[in-house]
Design a protein that fits this description.
By secondary structure, the protein is of the alpha+beta class. The chain has 28 helices and 27 strands. GO terms for molecular function: catalytic activity.
Length: 724
């Protein structure tokens, strides 16, 4: 080739070379870009939680991320692109990532799902506690993607969530069960008064269901409930006004349902706003409270108002009468000879008689009058109207009604009532004085005969004023040392030897002089002053007797009021004996039948305690009571005291002689000594001694004397008795 030709071809060669070099440079650049892209892809895949494996239609691995290799614990050297996917599965089995026991089953299942174009997924719990999730799904051209992911934390979180949800469900169910097991209804509303919760009891009470009212304004719910008539005739607006007002004040709202049940509603404000309301059925407790209140104000036997309720109504009636310038009458009633019914027919029959009498009085008096049982056989009636005319007509109706026998469980019993009437404001203006006026009128009625009535008269009022004056003086008498004791000697009739003396109380009034017991002891017993007076008498008598000869005893009367305070008396007697130095056997208590009537068993128990101390017990006024003989059989009395009413007739009346001799003989047969009181004459003295009576007491032997001269008259009259 010529030089010219060589020169002409050179540019062409250089251009071709430059083109080749450019292509190579472009290829290298593309390779570098591809490498960089793959590196970025690998870096991106490495940041994913899932390991990624991409495979082609022939199930050869195309892409395998480093995260995938880490989970199955292998390297890219073992799985270059083009490696069969089956080999990766076998490695998973070898590494324990796939359960070897069902590895083939797993492989076939995902192949079947893949062939159907479906995604297949399963979890595998590894021995170290790690949980991995496999997921395989197809993409275009028959290729597919497989991911593997450590889902231990997520599964634990899911498990914790499910556990929490289940616990919440259980807690919610327990809460609902607790609410539904409540005996009270409950509702909860939010700050906007929307219903949050109601329990089963609420639904039962008011006929609503939670699902129907949840989220509804509670005021609308209440309106529907009230309008349904559950709460009777009350309207929704006043109902809500009451409960909301009480809720704000912290007060309870009480309603009576149409069914008759009583519901108490209490509200409590919630911390975040809103309210909780409790609907409590208090029917039974309300009825119980009413029963207790009724029992406190009504007589248990007759169900009539008792004294407490009677006085309350009387005071209220007096106030109304004053406001209206009207009149009011009270009628005090007492059954005549009621005690004989109890003694002869027994207390059950007596109780039945009182019950039938109460029914008849209530029927005769009418609904506008108050009929009350004050105690025992004492009744009272409050009546308004034209007085005293209406009260007189009522008393006459009662007398007419009482003319018909009362049926007491088949026994027809005749009962008469005495009635005392007092009118306010004519006779008295306050309840206490009016009752006293009616009592005085009752005493007058009883004095006039059976079945009578009497109106209070002003002359009776003087007795009230006198009684009140004596009562006030009596209260001051003990502190002013106005009481004194006189002593009446008691002798042994056989040889006229002094054996004792009875302590007799006197009141040395600064204005009225010496007052006898009959004029103030009943008032002292009524006012309760007999207790401190009795204590003074016992102490003073023991102190005086302690200075007498040791064979001389002291007899002291014990009143029913003192005896009623059994424990006080039991503590007082040993204390006084110790203070005064008197030996117990020298002390004798004289008791009357009235003391035993109140509570026989309790009385006898106390008497036995006193006898255990060494104190002697004497039955006073023997023969005047109804059951004296039965008492002698029930208790070993140390002495029987024959009442002065029988002694007074000795020598003058044959019946008195027979009675006294019978009592003396009875005592001898029962080995109980007898003593006759009230001996006034030498003949009475002689007869008692002749009958065999062991002891005597009376003015013939000696009048009661002060302590300083107690045995003076007794000694002076000794010769006179010796003649007898």
């Amino acid at each position: 080739m010529t030089r010219l030709q060589k020169t002409a071809l050179a540019p062409i060669k250089r251009a071709a070379l430059r083109a080749v070099e450019a292509d190579a440079t472009s290829a290298r650049r593309q390779a570098r870009n591809l490498i960089e892209t793959n590196q970025r892809l690998d870096a991106a895949l490495a940041q994913l939680n899932q390991g990624l494996c991409m495979f082609d239609a022939e199930q050869r691995i195309q892409v395998l991320s480093s995260r995938f290799l880490d989970i199955v614990r292998t390297t890219t050297d073992e799985f270059p692109p083009g490696t069969p996917l089956r080999k990766l599965h076998e490695l998973g089995v070898l590494r324990g990532v796939i359960d070897p026991e069902n590895a083939e089953e797993v492989y076939q299942k995902w192949l079947a799902a893949f062939a159907k174009g479906k995604t297949w997924q399963f979890d595998r719990a590894l021995p170290d506690g790690q949980i991995v999730e496999y997921r395989v799904w197809p993409i275009e051209n028959g290729a597919g993607i497989c991911t593997i992911e450590d889902v231990t934390t997520r599964r634990q979180r899911d498990a914790d969530y499910l556990t929490a949800v289940e616990e919440l469900k259980i807690s919610h169910q327990q809460f609902n069960n607790a609410l539904d097991s409540m005996t009270d209804g409950l509702s909860m509303v939010d700050k906007d008064f929307r219903v949050l919760v109601i329990n089963q009891r609420f639904e039962d009470l008011f006929g609503v269901q939670l699902e129907a009212v949840r989220g509804e304004d509670v005021r609308d719910v209440i309106t529907r409930i009230v309008e349904s008539g559950v709460f009777g005739s009350i309207k929704p607006r006043p109902f809500m006004r009451k409960i909301f007002k009480n809720a704000e004040k912290g007060l309870v709202s009480t309603f009576t349902l149409a069914s008759g049940r009583t519901i108490r509603i209490t509200h409590q404000r919630a911390a975040g706003g809103g309210w909780t309301a409790i609907y409590q059925d208090v029917t039974e407790s309300t009825l119980a409270h009413k029963r207790v209140a009724h029992m406190a104000t009504h007589d248990a036997l007759t169900d009539l108002p008792n004294r407490k309720l009677f006085l309350n109504r009387l005071n209220a009636g007096l106030q109304r009468a004053r406001r209206r310038q009207g009149a009011l009458a009270i009628l005090c009633l007492d059954l005549d000879d009621f005690k004989s019914v109890n003694d002869t027919l027994g207390h059950p029959t007596g109780d039945k008689l009182l019950q039938e009498l109460a029914k008849r009085l209530r029927r005769v008096a009418g609904k506008r009058a108050t009929v009350a049982r004050l105690g025992g056989d004492e009744f009272a009636i409050i009546q308004t109207g034209h007085q005293p005319d209406d009260a007189i007509r009522l008393a006459e109706r009662i007398a007419a009604a009482m003319a018909k026998p009362l049926d007491c469980d088949g026994q027809l019993l005749n009962a008469c009532t005495s009635i005392g009437i007092a009118v306010a404001p004519t006779d008295a203006e306050n309840a206490n004085d009016l009752m006293k006026c009616a009592d005085l009128a009752l005493y007058r009625a009883k004095a006039e005969g059976r079945g009578c009535y009497a109106l209070f008269e002003p002359a009776m009022n003087r007795k009230i004023l006198e009684r009140r004056t004596i009562e006030n003086d009596l209260r001051r008498a003990l502190g002013n040392q106005e009481f004194v004791l006189h002593y009446q000697p008691q002798v042994r009739l056989q040889d006229d030897q002094l054996i004792g003396a009875e302590a007799l109380l006197r009141w040395n009034h600064p204005e009225r002089g010496l007052i006898m017991p009959a004029d103030f002891i009943p008032l002292a017993e009524e006012t309760g002053l007999i207790v401190p007076i009795g204590e003074w008498v016992l102490r003073e008598a023991c102190r005086t007797a302690a200075s007498w000869p040791p064979n001389v005893k002291i007899a002291v009367n014990i009143s029913p009021a003192q005896f009623a305070l059994r424990h006080g008396l039991m503590a007082l007697v040993p204390k006084i004996l110790e203070e005064t130095g008197l030996m117990p056997f020298r002390l004798e208590f004289e008791i009357t039948e009235a003391l035993l009537l109140r509570d026989l068993d309790r009385a006898f128990a106390a008497l036995h305690e006193l006898r255990a101390l060494g104190i002697r017990i004497s039955l006073d006024d023997f023969g005047t009571g109804y059951s004296s003989l039965s008492y002698l059989r029930a208790f070993p009395f140390d002495r029987i005291k024959i009442d002065r009413s029988f002694i007074a007739g000795l020598g003058a009346r044959d019946d008195s002689n027979a009675i006294v001799k019978s009592v003396v003989d009875l005592g001898r047969n029962l080995n109980i000594p007898t003593i006759g009181e009230g001996i006034e004459t030498i003949d009475q003295y002689k007869l008692l001694r002749a009958f065999g009576c062991q002891a005597g007491q009376g003015n013939f032997i000696s009048h009661p004397q002060p302590a300083e001269s107690v045995f003076g008259e007794f000694t002076l009259r000794k010769d006179e008795r010796r003649v007898a």
